[in-house]
Structures are given as structure tokens and as C-alpha cells.
Design brief:
Order of helices and strands: EEEHEEHEHEEHE
Shape: globular
Radius of gyration: 22 Å
CATH class of the largest domain: Alpha Beta
Distance between the termini: 29 Å
CATH topology of the largest domain: Alpha-Beta Plaits
CATH architecture of the largest domain: 2-Layer Sandwich
Length: 228
């Protein structure tokens, strides 16, 4: 294979694509084994240009690698090396980390929850602001920073309460700020495959207990938020 390698995910050795799986630019997807791991790749002459279709293809390949027993270590879109030897070097560098993640991810999947508060007043920006003094400008910055800290604190409190209500159904949780007009937090949950139905029921119950907030859920997904 003279082309470079576009990388999708790391999987246990012996876990190969089934059928004629196609990925980025309709290129064939194959498993390359090295260092007791396998990496699903497509041979490509150059890195792909980002597009909605390319990102969808990338994610579809990673989802095809997911089974009840195997959860791949998903790579972010755009990972590319120029040769198989460069791929072997990348695997040698990251193999310990990927093995640990494969063990932790096995039989798990990611769910996302976006938390919004309709009561938050969106910031109003003056396209042509009037001249202000240096002191007034600094006071405006301080108020904005204080509002942001308050929003982050609320997000952490809500995420903590949500995790408590979901109990042992959540194996890991990641919380990030949600930068939108009414956004509080984006929360990622790592959930065991067999707990998916119970997790959804518990999330519905938790949502009902906090009617002032809006919860937008999605999943299951490959564990992008936990792959580092």
C-alpha cells in the first residue's frame, strides 16, 4: 500500500471490518494489526478536506466497529499518517494508552446531555458601542466574568445532581460549558451497553424533577468525550 493512512479507531487485534465497509472518499476500510492492537484505516493519498459528508463517513466507520463486547477507541476526524511505518510508530507511542482505554470502554457507549436554562437572559451586544471610560470597561469585563463563573458553578451543581440521580448507571461523566444563549452545560456519560434502557428511564425521571431546565439528550455514540 503506497498511499498514506487515514485513521478511524483502535480496536482489539482480530476485530476486523465486515463486508465491504467504505469510509472517507468511499475508500475501503481495513484493519492493520501492530503491537497487539488493530487500527481501522483507509488508504488515501492525502488527508481529507473537512466536510459534513466526510465527518459522517468517519463516524459511521467507528460505529460499525462497535459491538456489544467491543467499544473502539475513536479518533478525532482528520487523523492521517503518510505510511504504514508511520502508523506503526504512532501505535508504538500510544499503544499502552489505547489498550487501557479498550479495556475500560469494552461493553460501554456514550450518551450526551445538553442542559439549557430558558430563564438565562442572553447577552446583548452593541454593534456600535458608545465610548466608555477605562474604569467602566473594566467593570463590564468583571461583570461578564462573574456571570460566567456563576454559570459554570450552576452547571457543575446540576451535573452533580444528575449523576447522583442516575447512580451507578453512569460509569464516567465529563462536563463542559455550553456556549449558547441559554446554555449551561454539555454532559457526557459513559454507560454500560446492558444499562441503556435503565439509563434512559432514569434520565427521563431526572428531567421531570427539574422542570425549569431543558435537557437535550443524544446517543448512543462512540466514547469520543472519554478517549482523550
Amino acid at each position: 500500500m503506497d498511499d498514506g493512512c487515514y485513521l478511524y479507531c483502535a480496536v482489539p487485534d482480530g476485530h476486523s471490518p465486515t463486508g465491504d465497509l467504505r469510509g472517507i472518499d468511499n475508500a475501503v476500510v481495513r484493519a492493520v494489526s501492530t503491537a497487539d492492537l488493530a487500527v481501522w484505516i483507509s488508504p488515501l493519498p492525502r488527508p481529507p478536506m473537512p466536510s459534513v459528508e466526510a465527518i459522517q463517513r468517519h463516524n459511521a466507520v467507528i460505529e460499525a466497529a462497535m459491538t456489544a463486547a467491543v467499544t473502539p477507541v475513536p479518533f478525532r476526524f482528520g487523523q492521517f499518517v503518510g505510511s504504514l511505518s508511520a502508523l506503526a510508530a504512532r501505535v508504538a507511542e500510544r499503544s499502552g494508552e489505547w489498550r487501557a482505554q479498550l479495556e475500560a470502554f469494552a461493553g460501554h457507549e456514550e450518551y450526551g446531555v445538553r442542559v439549557l436554562d430558558p430563564a438565562i437572559e442572553p447577552a446583548v451586544r452593541d454593534v456600535h458601542p458608545a465610548p466608555v471610560s477605562g474604569r467602566a470597561y473594566l467593570e463590564t469585563l468583571a461583570r461578564a466574568a462573574g456571570d460566567e463563573r456563576h454559570r459554570r458553578t450552576r452547571a457543575e451543581v446540576i451535573a452533580s445532581e444528575l449523576k447522583t440521580r442516575l447512580g451507578g448507571l453512569v460509569v464516567q461523566q465529563r462536563v463542559e460549558p455550553l456556549p449558547s444563549a441559554h446554555g449551561l452545560a454539555t454532559i457526557a456519560h459513559l454507560v454500560r451497553h446492558e444499562d441503556a434502557a435503565a439509563y434512559r428511564d432514569a434520565l427521563d425521571s431526572a428531567r421531570a424533577s427539574m422542570p425549569a431546565l431543558r435537557f437535550l439528550s443524544s446517543g448512543p455514540w462512540p466514547p469520543y468525550s472519554f478517549a482523550g
